[in-house]
Amino acid sequence: MAAVTSGGALRGVRPVRARRAGFTGAIRSEFTKIRSVRSTYASIGVMLLASIIWAVVFCAGTSAHWAQMSAQARGAVDPTQNSVSGLALLGQLVIVVLGALTITSEYSTGMMRTSLTVLPRRGIVYGSKAMVLAAVALAATFPASFLSFFIGQRFLTGIHAGATLSQPGVLRAVTEAALLVTLAGLFALGLGAVLRNTAGAIAAAYGCLFLIPELSRALPTPWLNDAQRWLPGGYLVPQITYTNPQGGIPHMFSPWVQLAVFAGYTAALLVAGAIVLRRRDA
Amino acid sequence: MIEAIGLTKRYGSTVAVDDLSFSIRPGVVTGFLGPNGAGKTTTMRLILSLDKPSAGTVTVGGKPYAQLASPMREVGALLDAKAMHGGRSARSHLLCLAQTNNIPASRVDEVLGIVGLTDVAHKRSKGFSLGMSQRVGIAGALLGDPQILMFDEPVNGLDPEGIRWIRTLMQSLAAEGRTVLVSSHLMSEMENTADHLIVIGRGRLIADCGISEFIAGSQRQAVLVRTPQPSALSAAIASAGGTANAPTDTAGADGEAAIEVRGLTQDQVADLAFAHGIRLHHLSTSKVSLEQAFMELTADSLDYQANQPGRPTAFNGTEA
Prior knowledge:
The complex is a heterodimer. By secondary structure, chain A is mainly alpha-helical. Chain A contains eleven helices and no strands.
């Protein structure tokens, strides 16, 4: 390997005017981090694929059975929901991993100490992480949602059951599916910042989003209704993706409010993560 | 300049760093010594604001580390060479560090050249040897061209060539007037690299002095004598207030034995022998290695007070 080049060669940066290290640099840095590891591309690819496959299977399935379906069953078909609930459900499973890894991989590799050494303003490091994750997630979930919707509808045109974006609730459903998945990524980031452990953060996120809502079914009805309204996960996906007037779940909030409840949990976890990061030794 | 005043870190009931005060000056390589678990890494983490001190303060160039405007331009630190994402290339790793402090990408390529990693810049660091990882870490520390550099056990696990490389690098950085702090538990390495030593044991300061002073201060300092009249010499030494013991009790055919004398200088032993008419076949002062001096000082850290590494018997060892 090369010998040390002594003297002046070690110098080089000082003449460049030093701005105070802040958000701009931190965001660029976090973007470099997220785009320079394979897991980002792998998770986004899997999410896109799973979302489209779901749309194809459900819409093609509806199309194939259309002839045998009763008028009532036909009326219950929600083509929008069929095409985007795959992203909303499976996308959450995938993005939770990406969101958790964004911060827990820094703890498992020891990179966090380096990150906080080069930029000791922890709030900025954490804030940039959240913003870059949100931006990457939005850039992945919106195309995934719209692609799944359009691809799904193509399989329904033959039976004239396809939806268009201009129909009531459709654009809302497609948008909310993408937003839900983005929020789930941030939800996992917050858990990762609190728990500092990849497996722990992913398990906790799955528990909150899938297991607890499932267990809550054992509750007596009035309590279950409250639980479904106020807990993350559960019937959130059908409630935000339905477009048929009779598809809504009466004891739940309206689609936007229901998503806002989940956004509230996400915000609370992000704040908890920020507090832990700032208070606890790195 | 790094300055610690009464720096203390407790984890529950254990005290990792105990009331440490020191200042690290520019222009020399300061060795930070202590056995494993002495609190070296914790101290470095405290300097870098990674951990909050339980008491006391530490400043870098007069400011707490967390308040530096552009930390990488003031302090370059290598704490753990393997502390990077294995799936990321060396260049991407360095780039994401550089960007936080608005350091241009051209500087990343420059430091890759300095540490000799240009050829593997785009390879994922997962496959790097420890030596290569150390070089990436050092490249990261050099990115901001800082005046203060801190390396935690930089030669751990390196081959002799890598060790020599790091040693030369640290010395040339100090020669440029920078502050260089290097921790190690390998005394032999410090002997060749450091000009100044800060020694800690069980979190407390044991010594803060120049390296030759440190060696000279060891009570191991002894005068070695070989004589055909061991009992006569031992008696003379005892009466003069010194202590004599035979390290190897193997008397030669002519009754010659080797004796280790403490509490007397080489000259005093020579005069004593002359006065008693005792023949000497060999007379020398044993050269104490830093390793020995260190073992002795840290063996029972609590018996030693800060800044008093020595015993009054101190003198520099030279072969007679």
